[in-house]
## 1
Amino acid sequence: MYKSFVAAVAVLLLTDCALAGSTPAPANAYLYIGWPVDGQVMPAGKPFRVWFGLRNMGVAPKGVNFPNTGHHHLLIDTDLPSADAEIPSDRNHLHFGAGETEAMVELAPGKHTLQLLMGDDKHIPHNPPIHSKKISITVR
């Protein structure tokens, strides 16, 4: 039973890596949202700052192919996109291809989720994908 479980986990891990982009990421890269914090209540009707945190990896603008770098994508009220395709660009997937490390965001009143995802020079997630944990905020 234990060997079957280990084999199943190995297949899942290998499948996850196979579905990621081709740009390697450092194994110790760590992406996080520095502000707002999980559970934060933000005022409605005005933009607020979202601060992007990254360790053990660099930030480079889109189109710049340099080892161990990428650029930020802020995911709003959505799940992580496919790891083997270009990250969408829409109101739920904001691209920061100039190398920005923070953004001013204004959201409608209500509950929202925020998550960061690094993309390579072509907006494709790294291998393995580098993403923050998803946080929840309330705007009122």
## 2
Amino acid sequence: MDKFWTFLTALHSGAGPIVMLLYPLYASVIAMESATKVDDEQWLAYWIIYSFLSLIELILQSLIEWIPIWYTVKLVFVAWLVLPQFQGAAFIYNRVVREQFKKHGVFRSSHHSKSTKPNILQSIFPHREGHEAHSH
């Protein structure tokens, strides 16, 4: 039975980096090189959600250590995000992330388009037409 648990632990440890990083990196490169933008949105949404999840883990690390099934739950959630048949990352982005940004007024208007620069970014990095920074 000990060999089984050792095998299961090794499988679990290997699955995390493959599911969370290796496959998404590969799929992101393939998406960037494809003609369609639909897959680009899925993978950009994945990296946004994965980054947010990683940030939450850093902030709540001492609490998460007390949840023995956290890594398994995270692995299943991330698998749902990345598997093409579910398109979980795009779903979460469209239903949660985008809605929260709209709710809190980050986008200029409720008719968000890809060319619209969010207000918060506009205030941090104002677009200066016709002006370029020159170093002297």
## 3
Amino acid sequence: MNQMIWVRGVNAALGRLVPQMLAGRLRERFMTPRSLPPRDWELPLLASAERITLRFGLSALRWGSGPTVLLMHGWEGRPTQFARLISGLVEAGYGVVALDAPAHGRSPGREANVVLFARALLEAASELPPLHAVIGHSMGGASALLATQMGLRTGALVSISAPSRILTMLRGFARFMGLPVRAREHFISQVERTAGIPAAHLDVQRYQLQLPGLIVHAEDDPLVPVGEAELIHRAWFDSQLLRLPAGGHQRLLGDPQVLQAVLALLGEVRQAPSRVLAS
């Protein structure tokens, strides 16, 4: 028997008998990232980085010098997954700082969520020079969008493979795990209590996005449908949308078209530096 079929069957039964207990277990699983080692192709960039620790314990890697670009990886991700982008940004004269998100890499914590990711961006921004741009992948992109609503100031923002609303992702996870209706409701409620924000509020349709941006997504993303990028684009007046025919959820980070589009956006902002202060 397929293992997931068995898991869903058990969850369906437990979800009817003890929905709150099962929801609590899955909330913990949902918010506890695994630690995944870097791939071989990431190691040269890792070796060339300067490791820094921010005031409240967040760990980050730094490369180059020049206008500061802050990067946030996705769930269970790593800074060096941005290797192609980082190398291109440094070659173009930018200084890059890439965070280990809370509960990831060398940053403290056991659990994390999109709100903690967003607060980490705000913490980093408070210690770094004025940000020329912020680039986030997947949950890192969602957290960067949220952080702008919490006071993050940056000249531009790039969202890659990000969802437009967190509630969709929570419901998708609950359905995938086979939770019956009552257990799903408890699961979402417990996630909201832990994060401190109603899931329905974590939706770009509710955001005021008043800065230039770029949205990147692959047509064949198996985790976050490309339609999410369209929703973000519609809600974000000053944004450009780059849809790639292929690239999955992570491979597109190394696509030369992505680097080209990012450098083009950052070049526009560099010619109008006052936008950093106005955003």
## 4
Amino acid sequence: MPSFWKSNRNWLTPVLLLAPGLILFFVVIILSSIETFWISLHSWDGFGAKVWVGLDNYKELLDDPQFYVSLRNNIIWIVMFLSSLPLGLAIALLLNQKIRGMRLAKSLFFMPLVLSTVTVGVIFGWFYDPTYGLLALIFHSFGAANVPALLSDDFWVTPAIVLAALWPQVAFCMVLFLAGLNNLDEEQINAGRIDGAKGLNMLRFIVIPQLKQISFIALAITIIGALRSFDIIAVMTSGGPFGSSTVLAYQMYEQSLFSYRFGYGAAIATVLFLIMSVFIVWYLRGLVKAEEK
């Protein structure tokens, strides 16, 4: 046995180190995805026997108006969430200055990242309260009599929730960009200064190109985070009013656990998985291309 280990440890060591993670990935991700797709081909209440229905759940999904509302809300999440990248970069550039008291400022901007999403949802639920919330106090200070109840308005409810979720997401992008700014090539920056580059030109032609990989990672994680949004919606509105703030993840949860339609919920989960897979494949291709350069 010792001789076998010595002669094969070059490939056995990485295999043993990777095995726990690969087994966990296979069981939790691959097998669960296959099982979810299998359930989506059945009518099942979660307790009794599964009844084969084929693609009927998917056909019903295409005729379900709530599905398109959820899909539209996911698109709104993605579009609004993308603003976290320029906002995070702007704050990172501000905090990267060597000014007295900047460490305290970094801690304050970093704080939303350590809060749970549920906590953020509760805080912004209080903020949006049309009677006693901070938003109401701001409106009253300007003499406004009527304060909009954003979480009760079917048009504004989704943007209001996304704004709440943006708070920690901007902090996350800020941390990524701060790490990137601390690893900039000083020689390129000094060469740019000699050539007269400063301000926006320095940012555009020297700083941002060096943050390309960080920006790519932030973009991919932001899009996937927007697609998997769930907990803050559950805390702030539970998908209301009348399903107007529901996204695909929450609709899947609602159909499965409240309507006891696990087959239909699995069909929604499968569609969401396919949408996310497009971004995941794009992300992995980008990583491979970056490694090849």
